[in-house]
Specification:
Blueprint lengths: L7 H6 L3 H5 L46 E4 L5 E2 L10 H6 L6 E5 L2 E5 L2 E5 L4 E8 L3 E8 L25 E9 L4 E7 L18 E3 L4 E2 L11 H6 L1 E2 L9 E6 L7 E8 L5 E9 L12 E6 L19 E3 L2 E11 L15 E13 L4 E4 L3 E4 H5 L7 E4 L25 E2 L5 E2 L8
Antiparallel strand pairs: 1-15, 2-5, 3-4, 5-15, 6-14, 7-13, 7-15, 8-9, 8-14, 10-13, 11-12, 16-19, 16-22, 17-20, 18-19, 20-21, 23-24
């Protein structure tokens, strides 16, 4: 999602003390519909605010899953050779920010060769070494489609919106070794998105090429964007160039695929960078709800809470998922609680770390780059000394505090933690 540099949203997100004290800072809080289009042109050295991929052509957001394997694409055009004659000027200028080479997106490995598949008005046939797979994941993006106005300045009907929701722009035809074919319609904001999109023009069945990443509180680790530290997450779905991941489930996983025919409908240029194949039980881009576990560090190893530039911890990572937070376990004096003084601060464990995470059922934990533990083993409560599950607190409980000897309610400061000392947040309140 592209936020304009002069938008009210970006002004609030980038707000800092220096900004508040600067008398020369005068943001424009409104823009015209034309300026909010995905094809908004940047001038000079102006950059997209909040971008996670600025001048970074690495495709990486964590370890890759061994359940997926990239296939080789024999492209028809070098990405660096795209010009204004092939795509819009904005897209041609953004090519320098497009991910290249080998990489990982959402835990899925991809291999981008020297050439991409450029699709516009000609059908392209791509033969592959025959393979069978339950899932195919396409890494692709499209150029923006400008909105057309009439002579009076009004948008022509039917008004399809900036992102052209549900616009049919191509067919990807899967060809099996037995001669059967299966045509897959590709629609804007469903299976593919534009390389830049306006605020709110998200996709429903595809995701940007960098998975969401955690952001620590600003007082723990300074972040570039103060606003993101307040919500503890960077969605990471915007940038100078965004590829989109679309996972397609093959209804015939036992049949081998020998080729794919790409049939663009001449609506807008499409850039197909890579394809990966895998065998997992469900959509690899759809993770389960938040879960918790306790990580026990080896003796003598200190916990490092620092997040790197990709939002990753050095000691524990997920491939088909993400670590939401990692904090030392608080040791409460449960047996002596009634005898402790008011507001006594619990001690912090030096070896036990409470991990919050969201993951696909087939995801794998990667520990220090040396050990790997499937998420399914944690959920099944297998005998694991390193990672132990924390049962979810799904039951709603209402707390009512009354004066002793009567039913008169009294105000109190109340905090709750679970059986494993994990913090239990009130409903509709911050989880930390």
């Amino acid at each position: 999602m592209t936020y304009l540099s002069r938008s009210r949203r970006n002004f609030i997100k980038t707000l800092s003390t220096s900004t508040l004290l600067s008398a020369s800072f005068a943001p424009v809080l409104a823009t015209s519909p034309d300026e909010n289009q995905a094809g908004h042109k940047l001038s000079g050295n102006q950059q997209l605010p909040g971008t996670t991929q600025e001048k970074n052509t690495d495709l990486y957001d964590g370890p890759d899953s061994p359940l997926f394997k990239p296939i080789t694409i024999n492209g028809n055009k070098a990405l660096s050779n795209l010009t204004g004659a092939d795509v819009s000027n904005e897209m041609a200028e953004a090519v320098v920010s497009a991910p290249t080479g080998k990489g990982t997106a959402w835990g899925i490995p991809f291999k981008m060769g020297n050439k991409i598949l450029y699709l516009r008005n000609e059908t392209v046939n791509m033969e592959v070494v025959p393979f069978s797979s339950k899932w195919l994941v396409f890494l692709h993006t499209s150029d923006h489609i400008p909105l057309v106005r009439n002579d009076d300045g009004f948008y022509k009907k039917p008004f399809e919106g900036v992102g052209y929701l549900n616009k049919h722009i191509a067919n990807y035809v899967i060809i099996y070794t037995d001669g059967d074919e299966l045509s897959l319609p590709v629609r804007e904001r469903f299976h593919i998105g534009m390389f830049r999109q306006g605020w709110g023009e998200n996709c429903t069945e595809s995701v940007a090429h960098h998975k969401p990443r955690p952001v620590r509180p600003h007082h723990d680790q300074t972040a570039k964007k103060w606003g993101l530290s307040q919500i503890r997450v960077n969605v990471a779905d915007r940038g100078d160039w965004v590829n989109w991941l679309w996972a397609w489930e093959n209804p015939h996983p036992d049949k081998k695929i020998k080729a794919i025919r790409f049939e663009p409908l001449n609506k807008t240029p499409i850039i197909l960078s890579a394809i990966s194949t895998g065998n997992v039980q469900s959509n690899p881009l759809r993770w389960k709800s938040r879960q918790k576990a306790i990580l026990t560090l080896p003796p003598g190893i200190e916990f490092d809470p620092t997040l790197d530039e990709y939002g990753l911890l050095s000691q524990i990572k997920l491939d088909l998922g993400q670590i939401i937070s990692a904090t030392p376990r608080l040791l409460y004096p449960d047996d002596e609680w009634a005898q402790t003084y008011n507001n006594k601060v619990p001690e912090k464990s030096k070896r036990e770390i409470i991990i919050e995470y969201s993951a696909h059922p087939d995801a794998i934990f990667h520990l220090n780059g040396q050990h790997s533990i499937p998420v399914s083993d944690i959920i099944k409560k297998s005998t694991q000394k390193i990672l132990k599950p924390i049962a979810p607190a799904n039951k709603k409980v209402k707390i009512r505090v009354v004066e002793k000897g009567s039913s008169k309610p009294v105000p109190v400061k109340f905090h709750a933690h679970g059986a494993k000392d994990e913090y239990l947040a009130p409903i509709n309140r911050h989880r930390q």
